[in-house]
Fold this protein.
Amino acid sequence: MKNFFHFLVSTLLVLSCTPDSAGGTPEWPWTEPDTPPAAAEPNPAVVEKGWTNVSASYTLPEGLQVYKSPSSLQGVKAVAYLAVADPSKIAWDVWSISDPEMKGTDEALKTPSEVFSATSAPLIINGGYFFAEGGKRYNASVAYSSGKRYGVNLNYASQDWETYYYPTRGVFYQADGKTLYGWTYYTPSGQHYLYGKPAPNSWEKAPLQAPDANFPEKAASFAPTTAIGAGPVLLHNAEVTDSWEAELFYGDGADDKMPKARHPRTAIGSSSSRLFLFVCEGRQMTEGVSGLTTAEVARVLKELGCTEALNLDGGGSSCMLVNGKSTIRESDGKQRAVGSAIILKKK
């Protein structure tokens, strides 16, 4: 009886798995699980321009990606990196020496690696202009963090130190939750003005009046939450501006021809939904790579979707760290200690 029972059960199991009388196969009672789709590229316009998403090489917070450039940009051999951040998930901030009135400070300049050691920020680039003189360190560009002023844009310029000009210079800032651009001027009396256009200066013309509440246009009082200054402004309202002449970045000396020459560059840009940080190598640190002009950087960023962009300090200062590691080869052969830096971090 026991053997017969086993035979009966086995026969029923076999019959239940054989084709039906119509010669078909019974419908499978469940479907095979789908293979999960690959994660969508968050910035397809960047990849379409030949940039490679290298974010998988790093541990990055959600909303932040890093890309490496194609082998040439604007027809020039290039080594460049681009960080693209979603502002709803990634915040930006500024580290700076404290020189709020351009009177100098005893504070030490810091390399980007030293800024990383203090902040552990996943992405850091160098910021605005600075200089050292008489044992003091000076900011020559706007720097704000948490509503506190650490620096202002240099408010004078001269070629011969006899005739003086008073330029408005570019700024990228955050106020009331919005990221905006403009030109600023800090008066000797301590007024900080913001304009939607630069004073139309030129080395080829006589100096204009110093900017005030009504020149070069009606000014707004400048009191941002976060800000970084430098210049020239590269893009404004989706148009290439590259306002180096008005901002008086081009003088007689060979080194003053910086906007028109190819050098390492650092820039910050934005679109309606993204923040962009750009850095490119130069000065033959990689054979054949000279760098880019400011106009070339402006065109690169516009092609990537930026509508606004600001040139930052470049040359030996240009540096981008991802998780504390350098992306480009710095042209000094090592990181330069700087007066300010921009950091990206998870909100």
